[in-house]
Specification:
Blueprint (H helix, E strand, L loop, with lengths): L2 H4 L14 H30 L5 H25 L5 H19 L5 H25 L5 H44 L2 H7 L19 H21 L2 H7 L4 H25 L5 H19 L5 H18 L3 H8 L4 H4 L1 H17 L8 H37 L1
Helix pairs in contact: 2-3, 2-5, 2-6, 2-7, 3-5, 3-15, 4-5, 4-6, 4-7, 6-10, 8-13, 8-15, 8-16, 9-10, 10-12, 11-12, 11-16, 15-16
Length: 400
């Protein structure tokens, strides 16, 4: 038994035959396209507000609708779709997404709600293809880290281009055209993606749904991740409330993306070496400090640096949600839905924030985020303690 296999808190087996590197990269590419909007949403929705095509409260509502659509689509695909004909499905979802991005250029008001809800459906199918591959690997946290880091690299490249060139010259519509052009690369990835994945093993007598412990892990995931959307989508209004410009907010978002790249790379290096709980506990304490700073009249440099640290912590923690779900549900059915839970959390966070902010005061988002991140961490700690207690009982039973 290897050192890795001796660690009970680490995943040690793959599902089905090894996936060739080219097919894994293609799946990661499709998933990255799906999540591309999450890092650019504050810029694009902020531009729509500046053009009076969307209200301030509409930021949270639009984000909620698109992410809710993405999460539900991913969940339904994970529960009911057999992992077959993935090349055709990937190409069709890419076409749908590109069409929705282009349609956004002609929308305003409630029309934006409808179009972005449709875009979330295409995103959800692409995300399912990527998550389904990750959930079947021996080191899902490493592949998850590679996945989110690749996504962030593209976001980090696009964010300053949108901020400095596209949005000032062509407005929000220009931003969505750029998004459509980048999304079109999904046609190329669909060519190389695996035609099918190995089916997950279901324990005898159980159906396709996760067991109770798996659902608790998904609930903890949803509560924990919701805090980031609750605060992150209001980065620009929070900066403006303490007297900083929209340009500073744009730089802060870019710094966050850079931090995410470093955080994702760090998570990949730590994969298979550390348990998820210390990572979440330390990250939670640091986030509470960062959001406290954001409630104060800090300088532009402090705001930008703190957002960069927030991005680092966010991406460091995110990949460890998959092994957390696998520990709670070794059948990996909950892990298959982890991506959907994270996306739904991204929808729930902005929606909840829309009820606690106003055009002149966005600090309610900070308080909400603090409550969510603490609650999620406590839930994950409770799940881990239950797992430890069950292992201790099994060891006693074997000894007897």
């Amino acid at each position: 038994m290897t050192e890795r296999q001796a660690e009970p808190h680490l995943v040690s087996e793959a599902v089905g035959p090894a996936i060739p590197l080219s097919e894994a990269v293609a799946a990661i590419g499709l998933g990255a396209i799906a999540l591309l909007i999450t890092g650019l949403m504050p810029l694009l929705l902020g531009a729509l507000v500046s053009e009076h095509r969307l209200s301030a409260s509409g930021i949270g509502q639009t984000a909620m609708l698109e992410l809710f659509s993405m999460g539900v689509t991913t969940a339904l695909a994970g529960l009911w779709l057999p992992p077959e004909r993935l090349k055709l499905i990937g190409a069709a979802a890419t076409l749908w997404l590109v069409a929705a991005d282009l349609a956004t250029t002609q929308a305003s008001g409630t029309g934006i709600f409808a179009v972005r809800f449709g875009a979330g459906m295409g995103d959800g199918i692409l995300l399912w293809i990527g998550i389904a591959m990750i959930a079947r690997t021996e080191t899902p946290e490493r592949w998850s880290a590679i996945f989110v880091t690749a996504t962030t690299l593209v976001q980090m490249i696009l964010a300053p281009i949108l901020t400095s060139a596209v949005l000032p010259a062509f407005g929000a519509s220009g931003g969505y055209v750029v998004l459509a052009l980048v999304s079109a690369s999904g046609f190329g990835f669909a060519v190389f993606v695996s035609p099918r994945y190995a089916p997950l093993v279901k324990p005898e007598g159980e159906g396709g749904l996760p067991p109770g412990r798996g659902w608790l892990a998904l609930l903890a995931t949803l509560v924990f991740v919701a805090c980031f959307g609750a605060v992150g989508v209001y980065t620009q209004p929070i900066a403006q409330q303490i007297g900083l410009s929209a340009e500073v907010a744009g730089l802060a978002i870019s710094a966050s993306l850079l931090g995410q790249v470093i955080g994702g790379s760090s998570a990949a290096a730590l994969a298979g070496r550390v348990h998820y709980l210390p990572v979440f506990a330390a990250g939670t304490l640091l986030f509470l400090g960062i959001w406290t700073v954001w409630a104060l009249p800090v300088s532009a440099s402090v705001f930008i640096v703190s957002d960069g640290l927030a991005g680092f912590l966010y991406m460091l923690m995110l990949p460890f949600l998959v092994p957390m779900a696998i520990e709670a549900d070794p059948s990996r059915r909950a892990a298959m839905l982890s991506g959907a839970a994270q996306v739904l959390a991204g929808a729930a966070g902005p929606l909840a924030s829309s009820f606690v902010v106003s055009d002149g005061n966005t600090h309610g988002a900070l308080y909400l985020g603090a409550g969510l991140i603490v609650s999620g961490t406590v839930m994950m700690a409770g799940l881990h303690l239950l797992t430890l207690r069950e292992r201790a009982h099994r060891q006693v039973a074997v000894a007897e």
